[in-house]
Amino acid sequence: MWKRLLFIRGTELVALALLASIPLAVDNSYVLGLLTLLAIYGILLIGLDVTVGYLGQVNLAQAAFLGLGAYAAGLSVSLLGFGIFGALAVSLLVGLVLGGLLAFPALRLEGPQFALATLSFSALSVTVLNEWESLTGGAQGLHVTRPDLFGFDLKAQGFYWLCLILLALVWMAMRNLLSSQWGRAFEALRDSPIATDAMGVGTFRHKVAGFALGSGLGGLAGGLYAFNFEYLQPQTYVYDLMVILLLGVVLGGRKSLWGAFVGASLIALLPNLLSNWLMFEVISALGLLVALAAGVRGLMKKTTKPFQAIAPIIAMGLLVGGGFLVENTENWRKAIFALMLFAVVVGLPEGLMGFASRFLAQLFRIDPPALPAPAELNTVLAAKAANGEALLELRDLKRYFGGVKAVDGVSMTVRAGQVHGLIGPNGSGKSTAVNVISGLYAPTAGEILLHGRALPQGSLFKVARVGVSRTFQNLQLFGELTALDNVMVALKGVYRSPLPLVLLGFARGEEKRAQAESLALLELVDLKDQARTRAKDLTYGAQRFLEIARALARKPDLLILDEPAAGLAHPDVNNLVEIIKRIRQRGITIVLIEHHMDVVSELCDAVTVLDGGQVIAEGTPDEVKRDPKVIEAYLGVVSEAEAPDAIPSPA
Ligand SMILES: Nc1ncnc2c1ncn2[C@@H]1O[C@H](COP(=O)(O)OP(=O)(O)OP(=O)(O)O)[C@@H](O)[C@H]1O
């Protein structure tokens, strides 16, 4: 672990020292200008990566936040007489506040609608900057004065160091944040907003916070940008820059600080890249080599489809070849960006850093940090009183979809400590009933009580927070996260540090505790050894068990399992039965929707049978199996000979 930590921190420190010392060794104002831009774009892209990489949204507003931050800083110096830090704080704040405000409506939208909302915001911002001439100077531009720093006139070199220090601080704070519960929550809601809410992690809150933070960094970068160029024009922050910024994040590698850094270097170098033919050819040829290496490697290891391997090679080949055919590469800039973006999106979805880090990890044999020992299960899931009192009560519950009465007046009582089966033929309303209980749907009518108190209605998040946890019939895992992180996202009662402490890196203790507790839950479902496997790479059976461990991380009073055996092979069904028995031993009450009658018979203390959205029978598994109404619902016939074990189980 120390080796890894030293390697990572060491590399960061060496890179910082190198960057800081270049101006001492090379006395060249042009190089200094490039380095300053690199630091500014670094901050900008780290911010953009929060929305694009972590939240998984196409954000076209970051260029606008750069512009708004720049004007805010410039104006707070000229109009309000602020010093450099005051002005930079204003640009950060402008990004945070406007980003948060934009996020409220925009994040209720998905995919292309979200992208369009951010695009509209950009267009609006540029128009305002352009038209509000009395304040911004409009198209004529705005001259900005760089304030001095505590009485020292900040020359180009001093200003570069200031930018570099701010980049280092942003880097540290974001590393702390993104490796904490916040970063996991950002990623979780990218993969499954429904499950994020159902695990008691507020989707909306985290989306707004992530977007505001990313935009805040955009604003801060804008402030530095203003003091770097000392002249601003609204047209700087439009279409071209948006595309270049996206290219930077995607090419560098999403979800990576180093990726943002590599992307920023690319953006800072782009003008030179296009105006200097030789450099353009060298970089394009390097790109072609990377595309060839990645493609051949992927094909040999069978991890890449032929199109994925060949298309980037063709795109980069076109760049190299095209360079010989066109007179002025600058005239082709948009086509060049488009080809680059295409090659990266298809060939290197993890970006250059994602690609490089795999090689580096192999080269230096960097082991991931060791995990702590699992916590005592007793401390994670304290045994609950299985006293048979009414825990969950449904009273005349109804849920209609238009004319379809999916749940039509269901009343039932689930007793503490019991496994309560909810069975019925396909379409009888079982899933709808648990979707209403867990808050995915609001009921049309009726009451739901937990511990005798009304359960919140129509909010997965609120229901999860009062002690009801669930799994899903169609798996809703956070596919990109490891098994361990899936459980850690949902873990209740561990993350207490306020945001400032997390940013400063003081939340590591609780991270260790969260790991230990989550490992105990993975051990309970026999997945401890696969803690580091990404959820999407687990076998189907393991994925089902992981959902159970994740639901347990809420430390619930009531656990709803929606067809956990669906699609499982026979040995896995046996494992599932063992796992559910272990959970029952902790005193956790379970509602089990299940088609496998043998599973129901073995596990359930009580069973409610639904048909056509209504309760047709209740009792022990043996009682309901013999009930003629139940047999008729399943088989459509009532025959003495077919009872008592006539209810079919899926193969
Ligand atoms: N979102 C929805 N919109 C419209 N109708 C729905 C919706 N969800 C469920 N239904 C309908 O409600 C009825 C009950 O469906 P539900 O999925 O709750 O049954 P189920 O008992 O869970 O079935 P299965 O065992 O096949 O999962 C069905 O007729 C279904 O088509």
UniProtKB/TrEMBL annotation:
Q: Which InterPro entries match?
A: AAA+_ATPase, ABC_AA/LPS_Transport, ABC_transp_permease, ABC_transporter-like_ATP-bd, BCA_ABC_TP_C, LivM-like, P-loop_NTPase
**Which residue numbers delimit the ABC transporter domain?**
392-637
Q: Where in the cell is it found?
A: Cell membrane
Cross-referenced PROSITE patterns: ABC_TRANSPORTER_2
Against CDD domains, the record matches this protein to:
ABC_Mj1267_LivG_branched, TM_PBP1_LivM_like
Task: Report how it sits in the membrane.
Answer: Multi-pass membrane protein
Q: Which Pfam families match?
A: ABC_tran, BCA_ABC_TP_C, BPD_transp_2
Keyword Magnesium assigned to the entry: answer is no
One function term, GO molecular function aspect = ATP hydrolysis activity
Instruction: Supply the alphabetized keyword list.
Output: ATP-binding, Cell membrane, Membrane, Nucleotide-binding, Transmembrane, Transmembrane helix, Transport
Which GO cellular component term is one of those annotated? plasma membrane
The UniProt transmembrane annotation reads 35-56, 63-82, 88-107, 159-178, 208-228, 234-252, 280-300, 307-326, 332-356
Name of the protein in its database record: ABC transporter
**Species assigned in the record:** Sulfuricella denitrificans (strain DSM 22764 / NBRC 105220 / skB26)
Q: What is the lineage of its organism?
A: Bacteria, Pseudomonadati, Pseudomonadota, Betaproteobacteria, Nitrosomonadales
